[in-house]
Amino acid sequence: MKKVLLLGASGSIGSQTIDVLLKHKGKFDLVGVSAGNRVENIENLIKNFANLNYFCFKNEKDYDEFLLRHPEKQAYFGDEGLIKIIEDSNADMVVNALIGFVGFLPSIKALKLDKILCLANKESLVVGGEIVNSLLKNGHAKLYPIDSEHVAIAKCLYNKKIEDIDKILITASGGPFFLLDKEKFNDITPEDALKHPTWTMGKKITIDSSTMMNKCFEIIEAHYLFNVPASKIKPIVDRKSHVHSMVIFKNRDIYLQVGPSDMRIPISYALFEGKPDNGKYFEDVEINTYGKYEFYPMDYEKFPLINYGYFVLKKGGNSGAVLNASNEVLVNAFLNHKIKYLDINKIIDKIMSTYAFIKNPSVEDLVKTDKEVRKLTEELIEKGK
Ligand SMILES: NC(=O)c1ccc[n+]([C@@H]2O[C@H](COP(=O)([O-])OP(=O)(O)OC[C@H]3O[C@@H](n4cnc5c(N)ncnc54)[C@H](OP(=O)(O)O)[C@@H]3O)[C@@H](O)[C@H]2O)c1
């Protein structure tokens, strides 16, 4: 039985991970969870998982209140708490379903402690893909992605050689604005951008999917996960999100993975370490639903942010941390109606052309970069008002 620590249990991936764990109670033992602002479901989790004893809260107030109710449990709070809970809970497996940079240091800690890391927090690879891979190479940790596209690619690559790949095609739904005139982009509101055509996800990734920053991150993620050069990784649009990604091999075999848009599939792939779990999450699939394919090229003019995926992989160093930090601040500002939709692109362009480059950053350098770029982005937002 694998002992599991779930970081970000209150989020979209976190709650779907709970669903999968409940389905396979004999195989996994949930020993610890973290939550941010949404702490309502914690009591339910305690009822459902007998050995759940470690808890981390974003806010000290929630931590205090929790310990008053449950003095017998072990609890922590804040960013440091996310590290302490990994150290103390003695889990075999850490599911990192945190959103944004806050997930980076927990990923590093899990890898340093030789855990099995089930990684939804793609920002960890965007910020520090080189460091993550060197920890994997030099230690005994394992990493399994929780991302529909990358799990699809991993399935297509089963028993295949990386050198036989001609191209990896990462599918994108195109988001809500694929057919919208570019001239109208500046009128896009957060409410418009939160209407994803095919997936229901947390707010930040939904905005990233509309700007294609999510696809940009996924190009970086694919490079670090599969050790494939950026030139062989391309986005392609499948408006229905039925094809989760594909691989074209040099002999022109095309492998693709199709199926419902349901994150429990990639989550179970990671929890079961790449083996089939045979869990039935929905009624039988109707093959004709998934048998008709229609692909479109990515529109790089409408969605220029996607190019930063290639930029970051070419430039390396701290450029991914810079991109991630500015994007996080800008998405938050857009969601709070502080900036217009296209300001996200404009300010990212400004920051990406001026930041202080560090060639071989340490983890500490990346933390410093993140802090400085957040401040700089806030200043540019203020200036633009
Ligand atoms: N959602 C999807 O379908 C999907 C698909 C593929 C990949 N991913 C990736 O999975 C990750 C999680 O995405 P999501 O959509 O599940 O996001 P989400 O719904 O916003 O959940 C994020 C989780 O992180 C917690 N959190 C946020 N900031 C925190 C902080 N400062 N300290 C402690 N906890 C914090 C949140 O707590 P509260 O909500 O309680 O504040 C929540 O539990 C992201 O990296 C995303 O790119 C998501």
Strand order of the largest sheet: 4-3-2-1-5-6-7
Low-confidence stretches: none
Helix/strand-derived category reads alpha/beta
* C-alpha Rg (nearest Å): 20 Å
Termini distance?
Answer: 55 Å
Helical segment count:
16
Bound molecules: NADP nicotinamide-adenine-dinucleotide phosphate
Percent helix: 40-55%
Number of structural units classed as domains: 3
**SSE order, one letter for each helix or strand:** EHEHEHEHEHEHEHEHHHEEEHHEHHHH
The profile of the biggest β sheet is: 7 strands, parallel
Model description:
The chain has 16 helices and 12 strands. It is α/β, with parallel strands linked by helices and 385 residues long. The protein has 3 domains: 2-145, Rossmann fold (3-Layer(aba) Sandwich), CATH 3.40.50; 146-304, no CATH class; 316-385, RNA polymerase sigma factor, region 2, helix turn helix motif (Rna Polymerase Sigma Factor, Chain: A, Orthogonal Bundle), CATH 1.10.1740.10. The strands form 2 sheets. Strands 4-3-2-1-5-6-7 form a 7-stranded parallel sheet, sandwiched between helices. The protein has a 5-stranded mixed sheet with strand order 11-10-8-9-12, with helices on one face. Strand 2 (28-35), helix 2 and strand 3 (54-57) form a beta-alpha-beta unit. Helix 6 runs antiparallel to helix 14 (319-335). The longest helix is centred in the C-terminal third of the chain and has 21 residues, at 363-383. It is globular. The model has no long low-confidence stretch (mean pLDDT 95). The chain binds NADP nicotinamide-adenine-dinucleotide phosphate.
